[in-house]
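Model it.
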Amino acid sequence: MKTDWEQKAKGILKGELKRRNLGYKELTEKLAVIGIEDNERNIANKVSRGSFTAVFLLQCLEAIGCSNVRLDDA
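Modeled.
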């Protein structure tokens, strides 16, 4: 069985955003607080593609206050 890693990464991030009732606008604002400047459209595109870096995923999770990730939910 082939795992679609980009889909899995996208699912993890979108799931964590949904659990916190956050959209890309709020994510953009929270990233800015930790010094990551980007715009809502770019972030939405990155997440939609699912081809973002591990660094971006960690930055997003940190920005939204996520300290635990469930891999089986993605």
